[in-house]
Amino acid sequence: MLLQGRLSLGSDTVVEGARVQQVAILGSTGSIGTSCLSVIRAHASRFSPLVLTAHRRWRELAAQCHEFQPRVAILTGVSPVDIDRSLFPPGVDLRFGPDAVSEVAAHPDVDTVVSGIVGAAGLHGTWAALEAGKRVAFANKETLVVAGPLVMNLVQRSGATLLPVDSEHNAIFQAMQAGRREDVRRVILTASGGPFRDWSTERIDSVTIEQALAHPTWDMGPKITIDSATMMNKALEIIEARWLFDLRVDEIEVVIHPSSIVHSLVEFADGSVLAQMSPPDMRLPIQYALSWPERLEAVGPRMDFTRAFDLRFEPPDPERFPALKLGFEVAEQGGTAGAVLNAANEVAVERFLQKELRFTDIPRLCRSVLEAHTFESEPTLDELLRLDRWARQEALRW
Ligand SMILES: NC(=O)c1ccc[n+]([C@@H]2O[C@H](COP(=O)([O-])OP(=O)(O)OC[C@H]3O[C@@H](n4cnc5c(N)ncnc54)[C@H](OP(=O)(O)O)[C@@H]3O)[C@@H](O)[C@H]2O)c1
Protein backbone atom coordinates (compact mmCIF):
# COMPACT_ATOMS: atom_id res chain seq x y z
CA MET A 1 0.00 0.00 0.00
CA LEU A 2 1.37 3.39 -1.00
CA LEU A 3 -0.21 4.96 2.03
CA GLN A 4 1.14 2.68 4.63
CA GLY A 5 4.34 4.44 5.63
CA ARG A 6 2.74 7.82 6.12
CA LEU A 7 -0.46 6.47 7.57
CA SER A 8 1.48 4.31 9.95
CA LEU A 9 -0.61 1.32 9.05
CA GLY A 10 0.92 -2.06 9.68
CA SER A 11 1.97 -4.82 7.35
CA ASP A 12 -1.17 -6.98 7.26
CA THR A 13 -1.94 -6.59 3.56
CA VAL A 14 -2.43 -10.26 2.74
CA VAL A 15 -6.00 -11.25 2.01
CA GLU A 16 -6.58 -14.26 4.16
CA GLY A 17 -8.41 -16.23 1.49
CA ALA A 18 -10.62 -18.91 2.91
CA ARG A 19 -9.40 -18.48 6.48
CA VAL A 20 -12.07 -17.11 8.78
CA GLN A 21 -10.98 -13.92 10.58
CA GLN A 22 -11.47 -14.29 14.33
CA VAL A 23 -12.91 -11.00 15.56
CA ALA A 24 -13.12 -9.50 19.06
CA ILE A 25 -15.88 -6.88 19.19
CA LEU A 26 -15.27 -4.49 22.08
CA GLY A 27 -18.64 -2.84 22.74
CA SER A 28 -20.75 -5.42 20.87
CA THR A 29 -24.04 -4.19 22.38
CA GLY A 30 -23.60 -0.62 21.11
CA SER A 31 -24.50 0.97 17.81
CA ILE A 32 -21.11 0.15 16.22
CA GLY A 33 -21.10 -3.31 17.82
CA THR A 34 -24.53 -4.31 16.52
CA SER A 35 -23.74 -2.94 13.04
CA CYS A 36 -20.55 -4.98 13.11
CA LEU A 37 -22.49 -8.12 14.05
CA SER A 38 -24.84 -7.42 11.17
CA VAL A 39 -21.83 -7.39 8.79
CA ILE A 40 -20.54 -10.61 10.35
CA ARG A 41 -23.96 -12.24 10.07
CA ALA A 42 -23.97 -11.45 6.32
CA HIS A 43 -20.39 -12.65 5.80
CA ALA A 44 -20.31 -15.59 8.18
CA SER A 45 -17.90 -17.49 5.95
CA ARG A 46 -15.31 -14.72 6.39
CA PHE A 47 -15.65 -13.47 9.97
CA SER A 48 -16.37 -15.14 13.27
CA PRO A 49 -17.00 -13.24 16.52
CA LEU A 50 -14.63 -14.92 18.95
CA VAL A 51 -15.14 -12.33 21.72
CA LEU A 52 -18.06 -10.02 22.58
CA THR A 53 -17.94 -7.36 25.30
CA ALA A 54 -20.53 -5.09 26.92
CA HIS A 55 -20.57 -2.79 29.93
CA ARG A 56 -23.92 -3.18 31.72
CA ARG A 57 -26.43 -4.47 29.18
CA TRP A 58 -25.89 -8.11 30.07
CA ARG A 59 -29.25 -9.35 28.76
CA GLU A 60 -28.41 -7.98 25.30
CA LEU A 61 -24.99 -9.60 25.54
CA ALA A 62 -26.57 -12.91 26.53
CA ALA A 63 -28.88 -12.74 23.49
CA GLN A 64 -25.89 -12.03 21.23
CA CYS A 65 -24.08 -15.02 22.75
CA HIS A 66 -27.01 -17.30 21.87
CA GLU A 67 -26.96 -16.17 18.25
CA PHE A 68 -23.19 -15.91 17.65
CA GLN A 69 -21.76 -18.46 20.12
CA PRO A 70 -18.52 -16.53 20.88
CA ARG A 71 -15.81 -18.32 22.85
CA VAL A 72 -15.56 -15.47 25.39
CA ALA A 73 -18.04 -12.82 26.58
CA ILE A 74 -17.04 -9.99 28.92
CA LEU A 75 -19.01 -7.59 31.11
CA THR A 76 -17.05 -4.60 32.38
CA GLY A 77 -19.66 -2.67 34.37
CA VAL A 78 -21.42 -5.37 36.40
CA SER A 79 -20.26 -8.22 38.64
CA PRO A 80 -21.33 -11.91 38.60
CA VAL A 81 -23.90 -11.33 41.37
CA ASP A 82 -25.73 -8.72 39.25
CA ILE A 83 -26.60 -11.11 36.44
CA ASP A 84 -28.35 -14.42 35.77
CA ARG A 85 -25.62 -16.72 34.43
CA SER A 86 -28.21 -19.24 33.23
CA LEU A 87 -29.30 -16.80 30.50
CA PHE A 88 -25.90 -17.24 28.81
CA PRO A 89 -25.15 -20.37 26.78
CA PRO A 90 -23.15 -22.85 28.90
CA GLY A 91 -20.25 -23.05 26.43
CA VAL A 92 -19.43 -19.34 26.65
CA ASP A 93 -16.52 -18.36 28.91
CA LEU A 94 -18.06 -15.38 30.76
CA ARG A 95 -15.57 -12.94 32.29
CA PHE A 96 -15.84 -9.68 34.21
CA GLY A 97 -13.94 -6.38 34.46
CA PRO A 98 -11.94 -4.10 32.15
CA ASP A 99 -8.69 -6.11 32.51
CA ALA A 100 -10.39 -9.04 30.81
CA VAL A 101 -10.96 -6.82 27.74
CA SER A 102 -7.27 -5.93 27.42
CA GLU A 103 -6.35 -9.58 27.92
CA VAL A 104 -8.55 -10.92 25.12
CA ALA A 105 -7.75 -8.01 22.79
CA ALA A 106 -4.14 -9.21 22.82
CA HIS A 107 -4.90 -12.97 22.69
CA PRO A 108 -3.06 -14.85 19.93
CA ASP A 109 -6.29 -16.42 18.62
CA VAL A 110 -7.78 -12.99 17.87
CA ASP A 111 -7.00 -11.65 14.38
CA THR A 112 -9.01 -8.44 14.40
CA VAL A 113 -10.23 -6.19 17.19
CA VAL A 114 -13.21 -3.90 16.61
CA SER A 115 -12.76 -0.93 18.91
CA GLY A 116 -16.41 0.02 19.50
CA ILE A 117 -16.44 1.06 23.16
CA VAL A 118 -17.58 4.64 23.74
CA GLY A 119 -15.36 7.24 25.40
CA ALA A 120 -11.86 7.11 26.88
CA ALA A 121 -12.88 3.76 28.43
CA GLY A 122 -12.06 2.32 25.00
CA LEU A 123 -8.40 3.27 25.25
CA HIS A 124 -7.06 0.30 27.23
CA GLY A 125 -8.51 -2.42 25.01
CA THR A 126 -7.46 -0.59 21.83
CA TRP A 127 -3.97 -0.05 23.24
CA ALA A 128 -3.62 -3.74 24.17
CA ALA A 129 -4.71 -4.79 20.67
CA LEU A 130 -2.28 -2.41 19.00
CA GLU A 131 0.55 -3.44 21.29
CA ALA A 132 -0.08 -7.06 20.28
CA GLY A 133 0.16 -6.05 16.60
CA LYS A 134 -3.48 -6.78 15.75
CA ARG A 135 -5.56 -5.50 12.93
CA VAL A 136 -7.79 -2.91 14.64
CA ALA A 137 -11.04 -1.66 13.10
CA PHE A 138 -11.09 1.60 14.92
CA ALA A 139 -14.33 3.42 15.86
CA ASN A 140 -13.35 4.69 19.32
CA LYS A 141 -12.10 8.14 18.21
CA GLU A 142 -11.63 9.20 21.84
CA THR A 143 -8.51 6.99 22.00
CA LEU A 144 -6.79 9.13 19.34
CA VAL A 145 -8.12 12.37 20.84
CA VAL A 146 -6.65 11.46 24.23
CA ALA A 147 -3.32 9.99 23.12
CA GLY A 148 -2.93 10.44 19.33
CA PRO A 149 0.89 10.71 19.07
CA LEU A 150 1.49 7.86 21.55
CA VAL A 151 -1.03 5.62 19.77
CA MET A 152 0.43 6.27 16.31
CA ASN A 153 3.91 5.67 17.67
CA LEU A 154 2.72 2.36 19.12
CA VAL A 155 1.26 1.37 15.72
CA GLN A 156 4.65 2.01 14.11
CA ARG A 157 6.53 -0.02 16.71
CA SER A 158 4.17 -3.00 16.90
CA GLY A 159 3.33 -3.31 13.19
CA ALA A 160 -0.38 -3.24 14.02
CA THR A 161 -2.87 -2.28 11.31
CA LEU A 162 -5.14 0.61 12.24
CA LEU A 163 -8.18 0.88 9.96
CA PRO A 164 -10.58 3.77 10.54
CA VAL A 165 -14.27 2.96 11.00
CA ASP A 166 -15.48 6.52 11.60
CA SER A 167 -17.26 7.15 8.27
CA GLU A 168 -15.33 10.38 7.59
CA HIS A 169 -11.92 8.86 8.24
CA ASN A 170 -12.85 5.70 6.42
CA ALA A 171 -13.82 7.89 3.44
CA ILE A 172 -10.52 9.78 3.62
CA PHE A 173 -8.64 6.49 3.84
CA GLN A 174 -10.47 5.24 0.73
CA ALA A 175 -9.98 8.49 -1.24
CA MET A 176 -6.29 8.71 -0.31
CA GLN A 177 -5.67 5.44 -2.09
CA ALA A 178 -6.16 7.28 -5.40
CA GLY A 179 -2.88 9.17 -5.12
CA ARG A 180 0.46 9.52 -3.36
CA ARG A 181 0.39 10.72 0.24
CA GLU A 182 2.80 13.55 -0.55
CA ASP A 183 0.36 14.88 -3.17
CA VAL A 184 -2.50 15.31 -0.65
CA ARG A 185 -3.14 19.01 -0.07
CA ARG A 186 -6.32 19.07 1.97
CA VAL A 187 -8.70 16.78 3.76
CA ILE A 188 -12.28 18.00 3.99
CA LEU A 189 -14.39 16.42 6.71
CA THR A 190 -18.12 16.53 6.02
CA ALA A 191 -20.55 17.17 8.86
CA SER A 192 -24.32 16.72 8.74
CA GLY A 193 -24.58 19.82 10.95
CA GLY A 194 -26.81 17.89 13.36
CA PRO A 195 -30.41 18.75 14.25
CA PHE A 196 -29.67 22.45 15.01
CA ARG A 197 -27.83 23.34 11.82
CA ASP A 198 -30.30 26.14 10.96
CA TRP A 199 -31.17 27.22 14.49
CA SER A 200 -30.39 30.67 15.88
CA THR A 201 -28.06 31.03 18.89
CA GLU A 202 -31.07 31.87 21.08
CA ARG A 203 -32.97 28.73 20.05
CA ILE A 204 -29.88 26.55 20.51
CA ASP A 205 -29.62 27.86 24.08
CA SER A 206 -32.89 26.17 25.02
CA VAL A 207 -32.39 22.81 23.31
CA THR A 208 -33.94 19.83 25.15
CA ILE A 209 -32.43 16.36 25.58
CA GLU A 210 -35.03 14.84 23.25
CA GLN A 211 -34.25 17.38 20.53
CA ALA A 212 -30.51 16.80 20.88
CA LEU A 213 -30.93 13.02 20.70
CA ALA A 214 -32.91 13.20 17.43
CA HIS A 215 -30.15 13.12 14.80
CA PRO A 216 -31.45 13.83 11.27
CA THR A 217 -29.35 11.27 9.34
CA TRP A 218 -27.47 8.87 11.65
CA ASP A 219 -28.74 6.37 14.22
CA MET A 220 -25.96 6.21 16.85
CA GLY A 221 -25.31 5.82 20.57
CA PRO A 222 -26.38 8.70 22.87
CA LYS A 223 -22.91 10.18 23.54
CA ILE A 224 -21.92 10.58 19.89
CA THR A 225 -25.44 11.82 19.05
CA ILE A 226 -25.09 14.68 21.55
CA ASP A 227 -21.54 15.27 20.26
CA SER A 228 -22.98 15.58 16.75
CA ALA A 229 -25.56 18.10 17.91
CA THR A 230 -22.93 20.33 19.58
CA MET A 231 -20.52 19.60 16.70
CA MET A 232 -18.03 18.39 19.31
CA ASN A 233 -18.06 15.17 17.29
CA LYS A 234 -16.51 17.10 14.39
CA ALA A 235 -14.02 18.67 16.79
CA LEU A 236 -12.98 15.18 17.95
CA GLU A 237 -12.78 14.06 14.31
CA ILE A 238 -10.48 16.97 13.41
CA ILE A 239 -8.12 15.81 16.17
CA GLU A 240 -8.53 12.17 15.11
CA ALA A 241 -7.70 13.05 11.47
CA ARG A 242 -4.68 15.08 12.50
CA TRP A 243 -3.02 12.12 14.21
CA LEU A 244 -4.34 9.28 12.07
CA PHE A 245 -3.26 10.78 8.74
CA ASP A 246 -0.33 12.83 10.08
CA LEU A 247 -1.83 16.10 8.81
CA ARG A 248 -1.11 19.69 9.73
CA VAL A 249 -4.15 21.45 11.13
CA ASP A 250 -4.22 23.86 8.17
CA GLU A 251 -4.65 20.83 5.90
CA ILE A 252 -7.98 19.96 7.58
CA GLU A 253 -11.29 21.65 6.76
CA VAL A 254 -14.90 21.04 7.73
CA VAL A 255 -17.88 21.48 5.45
CA ILE A 256 -21.55 21.08 6.28
CA HIS A 257 -23.23 18.46 4.10
CA PRO A 258 -26.72 17.84 5.50
CA SER A 259 -27.59 14.65 3.60
CA SER A 260 -24.52 12.70 4.85
CA ILE A 261 -23.93 11.03 1.48
CA VAL A 262 -20.42 12.33 0.82
CA HIS A 263 -18.54 11.05 3.85
CA SER A 264 -15.44 13.21 3.32
CA LEU A 265 -13.14 14.47 0.57
CA VAL A 266 -9.45 14.56 -0.23
CA GLU A 267 -7.87 17.23 -2.43
CA PHE A 268 -4.66 16.44 -4.30
CA ALA A 269 -1.94 18.78 -5.63
CA ASP A 270 -3.52 19.05 -9.09
CA GLY A 271 -6.82 20.30 -7.63
CA SER A 272 -8.67 17.00 -8.01
CA VAL A 273 -11.05 16.45 -5.12
CA LEU A 274 -12.01 12.81 -4.50
CA ALA A 275 -15.07 11.95 -2.45
CA GLN A 276 -16.43 8.72 -1.06
CA MET A 277 -20.21 8.45 -1.34
CA SER A 278 -22.73 5.99 0.06
CA PRO A 279 -26.02 6.11 1.98
CA PRO A 280 -25.47 6.91 5.69
CA ASP A 281 -25.04 3.39 7.10
CA MET A 282 -22.12 2.44 9.34
CA ARG A 283 -22.09 -1.14 8.09
CA LEU A 284 -20.12 -0.07 5.01
CA PRO A 285 -17.12 1.51 6.77
CA ILE A 286 -17.11 -1.30 9.36
CA GLN A 287 -17.12 -3.91 6.61
CA TYR A 288 -14.36 -2.12 4.69
CA ALA A 289 -12.22 -1.96 7.83
CA LEU A 290 -12.78 -5.71 8.34
CA SER A 291 -12.17 -6.76 4.73
CA TRP A 292 -9.55 -4.22 3.53
CA PRO A 293 -7.92 -4.36 1.03
CA GLU A 294 -10.69 -6.57 -0.33
CA ARG A 295 -14.20 -5.24 -1.00
CA LEU A 296 -17.04 -7.60 -0.12
CA GLU A 297 -20.67 -7.42 -1.29
CA ALA A 298 -22.61 -4.58 0.35
CA VAL A 299 -24.78 -5.41 3.36
CA GLY A 300 -26.65 -2.09 3.44
CA PRO A 301 -28.45 -0.02 0.79
CA ARG A 302 -26.69 1.22 -2.34
CA MET A 303 -26.89 4.67 -3.92
CA ASP A 304 -30.07 5.18 -5.96
CA PHE A 305 -29.37 7.33 -9.03
CA THR A 306 -32.83 6.80 -10.55
CA ARG A 307 -34.18 9.63 -8.39
CA ALA A 308 -33.02 13.25 -8.18
CA PHE A 309 -31.15 14.26 -5.04
CA ASP A 310 -29.05 17.21 -3.90
CA LEU A 311 -25.48 17.21 -2.69
CA ARG A 312 -25.49 20.47 -0.77
CA PHE A 313 -22.33 21.83 0.88
CA GLU A 314 -22.11 24.94 3.05
CA PRO A 315 -19.50 26.43 5.38
CA PRO A 316 -19.90 25.73 9.12
CA ASP A 317 -20.68 28.52 11.59
CA PRO A 318 -18.17 28.35 14.48
CA GLU A 319 -19.99 31.19 16.28
CA ARG A 320 -23.14 29.11 16.75
CA PHE A 321 -21.09 25.92 17.22
CA PRO A 322 -18.06 26.96 19.30
CA ALA A 323 -17.01 23.32 19.78
CA LEU A 324 -15.60 23.44 16.26
CA LYS A 325 -13.10 26.14 17.24
CA LEU A 326 -12.05 24.01 20.19
CA GLY A 327 -11.38 21.13 17.81
CA PHE A 328 -8.99 23.14 15.64
CA GLU A 329 -7.28 24.71 18.67
CA VAL A 330 -6.75 21.41 20.46
CA ALA A 331 -5.54 19.69 17.28
CA GLU A 332 -2.97 22.49 16.94
CA GLN A 333 -1.89 22.33 20.59
CA GLY A 334 -1.55 18.55 20.85
CA GLY A 335 0.12 17.44 24.11
CA THR A 336 -2.31 17.16 26.99
CA ALA A 337 -5.07 19.27 25.41
CA GLY A 338 -6.89 16.35 23.72
CA ALA A 339 -7.14 14.29 26.91
CA VAL A 340 -8.53 17.27 28.84
CA LEU A 341 -11.03 18.24 26.14
CA ASN A 342 -12.25 14.68 25.80
CA ALA A 343 -12.70 14.06 29.53
CA ALA A 344 -14.42 17.42 30.06
CA ASN A 345 -16.75 16.72 27.15
CA GLU A 346 -17.64 13.22 28.35
CA VAL A 347 -18.67 14.60 31.74
CA ALA A 348 -20.45 17.60 30.19
CA VAL A 349 -22.52 15.34 27.91
CA GLU A 350 -23.43 13.13 30.87
CA ARG A 351 -24.41 16.18 32.95
CA PHE A 352 -26.53 17.52 30.07
CA LEU A 353 -28.28 14.13 29.83
CA GLN A 354 -28.87 14.31 33.64
CA LYS A 355 -30.42 17.78 33.14
CA GLU A 356 -27.67 19.43 35.21
CA LEU A 357 -26.38 21.57 32.34
CA ARG A 358 -27.82 23.47 29.42
CA PHE A 359 -26.89 22.35 25.92
CA THR A 360 -24.76 25.46 25.31
CA ASP A 361 -22.90 24.85 28.59
CA ILE A 362 -21.17 21.83 27.03
CA PRO A 363 -18.56 23.74 24.95
CA ARG A 364 -18.33 26.44 27.67
CA LEU A 365 -17.45 23.86 30.29
CA CYS A 366 -14.90 22.26 27.96
CA ARG A 367 -13.15 25.57 27.25
CA SER A 368 -13.10 26.48 30.92
CA VAL A 369 -11.51 23.14 31.97
CA LEU A 370 -9.02 23.34 29.09
CA GLU A 371 -7.95 26.83 30.12
CA ALA A 372 -7.54 25.75 33.76
CA HIS A 373 -5.19 22.86 32.98
CA THR A 374 -1.41 22.90 33.07
CA PHE A 375 -0.36 22.15 29.51
CA GLU A 376 2.37 19.59 28.77
CA SER A 377 3.61 19.18 25.21
CA GLU A 378 4.95 15.60 25.42
CA PRO A 379 3.05 13.75 28.12
CA THR A 380 3.37 10.05 28.91
CA LEU A 381 0.32 7.79 28.89
CA ASP A 382 0.25 7.85 32.70
CA GLU A 383 0.24 11.66 32.69
CA LEU A 384 -2.61 11.67 30.19
CA LEU A 385 -4.62 9.25 32.30
CA ARG A 386 -3.98 11.38 35.40
CA LEU A 387 -5.15 14.48 33.55
CA ASP A 388 -8.19 12.61 32.29
CA ARG A 389 -9.17 11.99 35.94
CA TRP A 390 -8.38 15.60 36.91
CA ALA A 391 -10.45 17.02 34.04
CA ARG A 392 -13.42 14.82 34.98
CA GLN A 393 -13.35 16.19 38.55
CA GLU A 394 -13.10 19.78 37.28
CA ALA A 395 -15.97 19.17 34.87
CA LEU A 396 -18.11 17.75 37.69
CA ARG A 397 -17.41 20.82 39.83
CA TRP A 398 -18.08 23.34 37.03
N1 LIG B 1 -22.49 4.93 16.38
C1 LIG B 1 -21.91 5.35 15.28
O1 LIG B 1 -22.52 5.38 14.21
C2 LIG B 1 -20.46 5.80 15.34
C3 LIG B 1 -19.89 6.35 14.19
C4 LIG B 1 -18.55 6.70 14.23
C5 LIG B 1 -17.81 6.53 15.38
N2 LIG B 1 -18.41 6.03 16.49
C6 LIG B 1 -17.61 5.87 17.70
O2 LIG B 1 -17.70 4.52 18.12
C7 LIG B 1 -17.67 4.42 19.53
C8 LIG B 1 -18.93 3.68 20.00
O3 LIG B 1 -20.06 4.48 19.69
P1 LIG B 1 -21.54 3.88 19.74
O4 LIG B 1 -22.40 4.93 19.14
O5 LIG B 1 -21.56 2.49 19.19
O6 LIG B 1 -21.78 3.85 21.33
P2 LIG B 1 -22.91 3.09 22.13
O7 LIG B 1 -24.04 2.71 21.24
O8 LIG B 1 -23.20 3.88 23.34
O9 LIG B 1 -22.19 1.70 22.56
C9 LIG B 1 -21.07 1.71 23.39
C10 LIG B 1 -20.59 0.31 23.67
O10 LIG B 1 -19.53 0.40 24.62
C11 LIG B 1 -19.93 -0.26 25.86
N3 LIG B 1 -19.46 0.58 26.96
C12 LIG B 1 -20.01 1.73 27.43
N4 LIG B 1 -19.28 2.23 28.45
C13 LIG B 1 -18.26 1.37 28.64
C14 LIG B 1 -17.18 1.32 29.57
N5 LIG B 1 -17.00 2.26 30.51
N6 LIG B 1 -16.33 0.28 29.50
C15 LIG B 1 -16.48 -0.69 28.55
N7 LIG B 1 -17.49 -0.70 27.65
C16 LIG B 1 -18.36 0.32 27.70
C17 LIG B 1 -21.42 -0.36 25.81
O11 LIG B 1 -21.90 -1.43 26.64
P3 LIG B 1 -23.42 -1.42 27.21
O12 LIG B 1 -24.29 -1.64 26.00
O13 LIG B 1 -23.47 -2.54 28.15
O14 LIG B 1 -23.62 -0.07 27.82
C18 LIG B 1 -21.65 -0.60 24.32
O15 LIG B 1 -21.39 -1.94 23.99
C19 LIG B 1 -17.57 5.86 20.04
O16 LIG B 1 -16.23 6.17 20.26
C20 LIG B 1 -18.10 6.69 18.88
O17 LIG B 1 -17.55 7.99 18.84
C21 LIG B 1 -19.71 5.66 16.48
What does this structure look like?
The chain has helices at residues 4-7, 31-42, 58-68, 98-105, 123-131, 141-158, 167-176, 201-205, 209-212, 222-230, 232-244, 283-291, 323-333, 337-353, 361-372, 381-397; strands spanning 21-26, 47-54, 72-75, 93-96, 112-115, 135-138, 161-164, 184-191, 252-256, 262-268, 273-277. The chain is of the alpha/beta class. It folds into two domains: 4-165, Rossmann fold; 196-279 and 316-397, RNA polymerase sigma factor, region 2, helix turn helix motif (Rna Polymerase Sigma Factor, Chain: A), CATH 1.10.1740. It has a seven-stranded parallel sheet, with helices on both faces. Strands 9-8-10-11 form a four-stranded mixed sheet, covered by helices on one side. Helix 14 runs antiparallel to helix 15 (361-372). The protein is globular, with a radius of gyration of 20 Å. Bound molecules: NADP nicotinamide-adenine-dinucleotide phosphate. NADP nicotinamide-adenine-dinucleotide phosphate (NAP) binds next to helix 2, helix 6 and helix 10.
Summed up, what is this model?
The chain is an alpha/beta fold.
Which characteristics define this entry?
binds NADP nicotinamide-adenine-dinucleotide phosphate; 2 domains; 16 helices; Rossmann fold; 15% strand; Rna Polymerase Sigma Factor, Chain: A; 42% helix
Secondary-structure blueprint:
Layout: H1 4-7, E1 21-26, H2 31-42, E2 47-54, H3 58-68, E3 72-75, E4 93-96, H4 98-105, E5 112-115, H5 123-131, E6 135-138, H6 141-158, E7 161-164, H7 167-176, E8 184-191, H8 201-205, H9 209-212, H10 222-230, H11 232-244, E9 252-256, E10 262-268, E11 273-277, H12 283-291, H13 323-333, H14 337-353, H15 361-372, H16 381-397
Helix pairs in contact: 2-12, 4-5, 5-6, 6-11, 6-14, 11-13, 14-15, 14-16
NADP nicotinamide-adenine-dinucleotide phosphate (NAP) binds next to helix 2, helix 6 and helix 10.
